[in-house]
Amino acid sequence: MAESVLTARRSRARRRPRAPRRARAAWVGYLPYLLPGAVAFAVVIGYPLLTNVYFSLFKWRGGMAPLRWNGLGNYADLMGDDQFWTSFGNSVAMIVAMVLVPTLVGLLLAAVLFDYLGRRFGERVSSVLRATYYLPQILPVAVAGVLWNWILNSQTGALNEILRGMGMDSPPNWLGDPATALPSVMLVLIWIQIGYPVVIFMAALQRVDPELYEAAELDGAGWWHRFRAITVPQIRPETFVVTLTCTVAALKVFAPIYVLTRGGPESSTLVPSYYSYLNFFDKSHVGYGAAIATVLTLVIVAVAVIILGLQSRAERREREGI
Amino acid sequence: MAVATSVRAPRLRLRHSGIDSRYRRGAGRWLVLAVAVLVGLVILAPFGIMLLNAVKSPQDYSANGPLSLPSSIYLDGVVAFWERTEFPVKLWNSVFISAVVAVLGALLSLLNAYAIGIGRVKGRLWIVTLFLLANMLPQEALIYPLFTMAQSVGLSNSQWSVIIIFTVIQSAFGTYLLSSVLGTFPPALLEAAALDGASRWRILWQVVFPIMRPTLSVLMIFFFIWTWNEFFIPLVMLTTNDTQTIPIALASLQGDRMMDAPTINAGTLVSLVPAVVFFLIFQRTLTRGVTAGAVK
């Protein structure tokens, strides 16, 4: 597309001798359109981000209290803070629940719906199933969390009522026991997340040339074989997008933790975002909270850069392969 | 593995070849369908339990458990939730904030993308990368300065602070998406308009905007839903009953001792109805939109 713009400009240049100077400066004329965005970004994202880093260098109880210089002291404290390490350890669990499991299961479900059930029972069946899987994605995360909080409640919750009805005397306190809280939260997150990769992957599969499958079928390749040799490599770009967006979301996860467990019991479900919120607004350790948020930001940017790097390397290798 | 072999038989038009393979395929495909339906039922189960218990009296619940059909329709839970949260106020707050963000966010995205995608501003790759990174930032890294800034300009507990913040955050994604779409805008159209002497401003509104309208509407639906579902920033910025949104209202009722099963379930039900209604209305546009986000 860039070439066609250039050639178009060149042809105009031939017609009118003054054009080259105008073409050179053409993009400058568009700068005013960037102005509102630039100002808004500087005010709402750039300035607060830098101010947050600035706050992280102080001990500050917030509000009118004085800021006391602490250098990198907050960061040094973080290194020795068990809760901080627990929170990032739990981020790994969030990645398992929001990226690993949904992407793998979603890939399988999408392939089954698209080229197995869709072909044998018609497109209606597969699109109804897809909509069903996607349903948890459309309700506000906080609302989903409140619903699950009640279902998993040890006293009045639906799950334990059912278990008691089946004769279990003391069913587990799902969200209240440090041993079961994290797995319970992970199951809720899988339930919320699963529809997203299914929808993306099914759309991606429509892009794949059906002749590839037909050729493989004629060669006698089974479904699993075709899944691995055609489906997975063909929709790799979408897999990268899903992995990137979901990993970032998993590192940022806040609302489900807030409504399900508030990081408890005994910090067993604490995550970095909730830990910084706690320091900001509950413990009034603003400098410390800012330091946690800054570390989280760095981790997210690093992870995003790594995933984007892997993606461009895979794309390059694919191009060279062809 | 049985599934894998059973799939081998080619598609419909070759069906008449060999009754034997068709039988094998027949058994396997029902099994796969059963598993897929089962997954769907597991996903639906919490919704079902919620529906059953939203209209069941507390006595009925403790006597017959969560899985029984309600013996009579009990609406006190809905009424209690509706009145306690002043639901119409919350609904209006959510609609107002999300709708304004959708419009302003799309507008800001369009202006940015016009300069980047069509104007081909120098350094545009860096600008787009910056926007993309901005979209990924954890809100915790912005919230305290935003909170103090809102206080100092008199926007504490104001919906406008939330609107401004989300307009910018959503337009970060919108700019990224629209820039790549506008990068492929037919140059002939722009050329023709320029030869007719149209200014950049007129080209934007009379050439680019009409053609981009479908993409912009998908973007607006997205922004609306994302803002509707937001939790963290509204939780911090909106501190009183009259400004809060639906998710915040529901979550803040949660710790309440007076919340019995029907009230919680009715609250969940009432809170998700607008999202579901919105989803059903825009389902087609939306599925297209989810896809648009994926193809970069």
Automatic annotation (TrEMBL), chain B:
CDD domains: TM_PBP2. The keyword Transport applies. It is found in: Cell membrane. Gene3D superfamilies: MetI-like. The chain crosses the membrane at residues 30-52, 91-113, 125-147, 159-182, 203-228, 263-282. Coiled coil: none annotated. Keywords: Cell membrane, Membrane, Transmembrane, Transmembrane helix, Transport. It is a multi-pass membrane protein. Residues 91-282 form the ABC transmembrane type-1 domain. It comes from the Bacteria. Its main location: membrane. The keyword DNA repair does not apply. PANTHER family: ABC TRANSPORTER PERMEASE PROTEIN MG189-RELATED, ABC TRANSPORTER PERMEASE PROTEIN MG189-RELATED-RELATED. Belongs to the binding-protein-dependent transport system permease family. This is Carbohydrate ABC transporter permease. It comes from Myceligenerans indicum.
